[in-house]
Amino acid sequence: MSQRTLFGGAISIVLPTNLLDASDIRQVPDTQEVFVSRDSDISFVVEILERVPIQNPDEAARFHFDSLAHDNDAQSHIVHEVQVPSAQNAALSEGTPLPIILDGSQAVTKFNRTTADDVRILLALFRIENKNVDLVLSVNIPTVAEDGTAVPPSGIESTREVFMVAASSLRVLDFDLFV
């Protein structure tokens, strides 16, 4: 694990050293930072989005998960759990807001395959109200894959631990990024 800077140094995060910056191999939108594992089909995405006009944090996280399912053309999707930081802990947070954590699954057909892959989605939503931004960290973990690249249960749990480190370490260093 190592500290990385994103968006020209405006955000820092701790991520595994075995992740490749996807922009080195393909086009990535300016509003995203995408990292892919060298050892599996696991990917980490940090995306800057316009803040959705939903006040309830649980519902806002579900909205972003549903939007991701739509973008993935998911055949089905389900939310397993949403963890919202307590108001007391959120008040103690300086600068970068505490994330809302969502754990869900999507059935996604990829690359003209005949069977949908089951993909575990871990999502951390950072609501930056004064900049009208929702910053989303998501991790895609294939748990059932037609091509045999599924991550075993032990890998799912270790990736969840890595995701929690990434989510808790993410810091906005320069809020002018969101102008």
TrEMBL record:
Single GO BP term: protein import into nucleus
Gene Ontology molecular-function annotations: guanyl-nucleotide exchange factor activity; small GTPase binding
InterPro entries: Mog1 (IPR007681), Mog1/PsbP_a/b/a-sand (IPR016123)
Keywords assigned: Protein transport, Transport
Top-level taxon of origin: Eukaryota
UniProt record similarity statement: Belongs to the MOG1 family.
Name of this protein: Mog1p/PsbP-like protein
Organism: Rickenella mellea
Source taxonomy: Eukaryota, Fungi, Dikarya, Basidiomycota, Agaricomycotina
